[in-house]
UniProtKB/TrEMBL annotation:
It comes from Rhodamnia argentea. Residues 40-381 form the GH18 domain. The gene is LOC115752597. Pfam families: Glyco_hydro_18. InterPro entries: Chitinase_II/V-like_cat, Chitinase_insertion_sf, GH, Glyco_hydro18_cat, Glycosyl_Hydrlase_18. Transmembrane segments: none annotated. Gene3D superfamilies: 3.10.50.10, Glycosidases. CDD domains: GH18_plant_chitinase_class_V. Keywords: Glycoprotein, Glycosidase, Hydrolase, Signal. GO terms for cellular component: extracellular region. This is Class V chitinase-like isoform X6.
């Protein structure tokens, strides 16, 4: 009897151990699955009028899609969706989830429209009451339109005071997002911000990197637009490595990490567009060659699928520079800097290798039959 009890106890004990081990392993694999889902961003921005609808997006090639842009109403400090965007934003999430039910969507607020948009952000962020209006309305708008998160695109806070107010805004935003999740029982909204490629912008004070790390899920580092309509020479739009002027994605990533942003919260941005310039001399067509201005469009911007057309129609010469990781093409005096498949695959490999959170493209409508998106997706290995 006592022997039997003993044996039974041993059996129970080993069963308990097995149960415990099973639980531990399930927990660990759950953690792993969770961190896989939570960890990587293979993202892209979309906007209405970019040439494709949300339903056109091959969302199987993305983990996150950013819907651009909701606006800050300067008179009320509320986040609003313009009437022209309302219909397509309301169905954005269900549209992109048709092909990929697990893709997550973020409503992006603001954008690169310049002066008054940035001024309105600065004004809103300067008072606690207007910050609260902004924050509360952003959460309500995200929920009522079915988004999984919010993305702040303030281009850019450019004074010490604005940087300090940005820090307050992000702290209060995170607290409100957490409180809303607790009271609604839903997953907390994701919170990201599109930022300058490096933490040092115009103001003497850098971005509040530590506060951003503590309150944002990640930052989207806009590592492009290094050359544009203001330039007097050709040069790589979005070099990964320093072409000689210090403007590169790698310089920006290193500076963000140095400033206190963990690599695992940095998402590296690259362009699905290029910039076209007019060469001063058709025979001088390398980097830093003199130009007389932009070409093809007023600010020289041209999406990737138009670049591939241009190359075939004009039999343009294409060059991939593996030192800086950038491509260009030229025909006569027209010279275009852009990211091709080789550029994208190298950048994604870099992002993975440096332990970054992921990558994003501005903007998915620029792709050519999804070749860049597919290349990016396949290169995160
Ligand atoms: C690539 O760009 C760098 C930086 O401008 C330059 O020094 C180098 O000669 C270029 N390489 C090629 C193969 O054009």
């Amino acid at each position: 009897m006592s022997n039997l009890l003993h044996v039974t106890r041993q059996k129970m004990a080993s069963n308990d151990n097995r149960t415990l081990l099973f639980l531990v392993f399930s927990f660990l694999s759950l953690l792993q699955i969770n961190s896989c889902i939570a960890q990587n961003v293979k993202g892209g921005y979309w906007f209405l009028g970019s040439g494709i609808t949300a339903s056109d997006i091959d969302s199987t090639l993305f983990t996150h899609l950013f819907c651009a842009f909701a606006d800050l109403d300067a008179s009320t400090n509320q986040v609003v969706i313009s009437s022209s965007n309302a219909q397509s934003f309301a169905t954005f999430t269900s549209d992109v989830q048709q092909k990929n039910p697990s893709v997550l969507t973020l409503l992006s607020i603001g954008g690169g429209g310049g002066g008054s948009i940035a001024d309105n952000f600065a004004s809103m962020a300067s008072q606690s009451s207007s910050r609260k209006t902004f924050i509360d309305s952003s959460i309500a708008l995200a929920r009522s339109n079915g988004f999984h998160g919010l993305d702040l695109d303030w281009e850019y806070p450019d004074t010490d005071a604005k940087m300090a107010n940005l820090a307050l805004l992000l702290q209060e935003w995170r607290a409100a997002v957490a409180a809303e999740a607790a009271s609604s029982g839903k997953d907390a909204l994701l919170l990201s911000a599109a930022v300058y490629y490096r933490p040092h912008y115009w103001s003497p004070t850098d971005y509040p990197a530590a506060v951003m790390a503590a309150n944002l899920d990640w930052i989207n580092a806009m590592a492009y637009d290094f050359f544009g309509s203001w330039s007097s020479t050709t040069g790589p739009l979005a070099a990964l490595y320093n072409p000689g002027n210090g403007l590169s994605g790698d310089d920006g990533v290193s500076a963000w990490i140095q400033a206190g942003m963990p690599a695992g919260q940095i998402v590296l941005g690259f362009p699905f567009y290029g910039r076209a310039f007019t060469l001063a001399d058709a025979n001088n067509h390398g980097y830093f060659a003199p130009i007389t201005g932009t070409a093809i469009s007023p600010d020289g911007s041209i999406v990737y699928n138009q670049i591939t057309k241009y190359i075939s129609q004009h039999s343009a010469t294409t060059v991939y520079n593996s030192t800086v990781v950038s491509a260009y093409c030229y025909s006569g005096t027209t010279w275009i800097t852009y990211d091709d498949t080789q550029t994208i695959s190298t950048k994604v490999g870099y992002a993975k290798g440096r332990g970054l959170k992921g990558y994003f493209a501005w903007h998915v409508g620029g792709d050519d039959n999804w070749v860049l998106s597919q290349t990016a997706w396949n290169s995160w290995t």
